[in-house]
Amino acid sequence: MKTYLDFASTTPMALEVIEQMNAVMSEASYGNPSSLDHQFGVSANKIVEESRKVVAGLINADPDEILWTSGATESNNLAIVGFHQFQYKGKPMRFMTSHLEHKSVIECMHTIESHGSNICFIRPNDHGRIDFETFLDQIDKDIIFVSCMHVNNETGLINDIEEIGKYCRNNEIIFHVDAAQSIGKIPIDVKDMCIDLLSMSAHKVYGPKGIGALYINKETVGRVKSIIVGGGQERGMRSGTLPTHQIAGMATAYDLSKIRMHEDHGHIKQCREAFLKKLSGISGWRINGAEKHTYPGIISISFPDLYSESLIYAMEGFAISRGSACSSDHDEPSHVLKSMGLLDHEIDGTIRISFGRNTTLNEANAAASELIKSVSHLRNLKGDN
Hints:
This protein has helices spanning about 15-25, 40-60, 70-85, 105-115, 130-140, 160-170, 245-280, 310-315, 335-340, 345-350, 360-380; strands at about 5, 65-70, 95-100, 120, 145, 175-180, 195-200, 210-215, 285, 300, 320, 350-355. A 7-stranded mixed β-sheet has the order 2-8-7-6-5-3-4, sandwiched between helices. A 3-stranded antiparallel β-sheet has the order 9-10-12. It has 2 domains: about 5-10 and about 260-380, Aspartate Aminotransferase, domain 1 (Alpha-Beta Complex); about 15-255, Type I PLP-dependent aspartate aminotransferase-like (Major domain) (Aspartate Aminotransferase, domain 2), CATH 3.40.640. Helix 6 links the parallel strand 5 and strand 6. The chain is globular. Helix 1 packs antiparallel against helix 7 (about 245-280). With about 375 residues, the protein is an alpha/beta fold.
C-alpha cells in the first residue's frame, strides 16, 4: 500500500463526513430539496439551507451569498463567464489574471476574449507569487475584473489577496479569488479581504468530490448569468437538482476545518520541516518559490539533472505527482512553472509532494529518505556520482 502524499490533488474524506453523508442518505431526507409540497422535500431543503449557513460562516459571508456548484472548476466558470455574460452589453470589457492560475480560470478568460472582451496576464514576481507591488506595477487602466488565486496548487505560494482586494474595492474593480487550495486551511474573510466572488471546493479539505460553492457578494455583484440552464434552481443562477448528501458532506468538512485549522496547519508545518531537514542531506535540488509566503502543505521541488517521471517511478511506495492533477496526463510543461521563469529542464525535473491532516511525521521522514535514495540511484545510473 502506497503512502499518500498528494493532498493538493485531493484529500480522503474525513470519517465525520462519511458518517454525515450516510445519515442523510439513510434517513427520510431523500426528497428533492426543491419539492416543498411534502415533508421529504422540506427535510432535504432544511439540510441544504443549514449547510449553506455553515459554508457562509467559514468565510464571514451571508448564507444567501452562497451558490452551490459541482466544484471549484464550475465556480470559476460561473464567476468569470457568468459575470461576463450578465454584464456584457456589446462593449469590450477588460479582465486581468495571471498565468499562475488554474486552467479553468485561464480557459474561461480565453472564452470571454472570444466573445469580445480584452484580457491581460500579469507576471509573478521573482519568487513566483503575486504580491501587491507586482500587481500594482502591471495593472492596466480600465480593468473592471481581476481574478487571482489564493494558494497556488502547484507551488503552495500564497498571493497577496488582502491588499489586492482592497485596491480593487477602492477602484471599483470586481475581485474574484479561486480559493480551492486555501479554503479551510488558512483563514479567509471575504469582507476584510474585499472579495466579490470566491470559488470553493469540498474535496481539497476532506469533503466529497463533485460539490463546491461560489460566494457572490450581494452588494457589489448581486447576480451572474447561469451557464447551466434548465430548472432555475439557486435563484436562477445554477440549474440542476441539488445533491443533498454531498452538500451535507461539504458542510461537515468545512465545520471540521474551522475547528481544526490551527492544529492542522501546525502539524503540516512540522511534516514539511522534518521532510526538508532530512532532504538537506543531498544537493542539487531547489524549492520552486519562496519559503516565506507558502502554505506548508505543498512542496514543489526541482531536480534539474533528473526527470520527474523517473523519480515518481523510483519512489514506488509513495503517491506523489508532477504538479497539477488536471495537467498530469498531458506532456506540455507546467504553465505555472514557465510563468515563474523556470527552464524546461528544471520543469522536467520537478515533483510535487503535498502533506495533509493524515500525514504522520514518520511518513514525512520516510518520504525524504526514499527520495534521497531514489535521487542517488538515478544519478548513479547516469554516472553523475
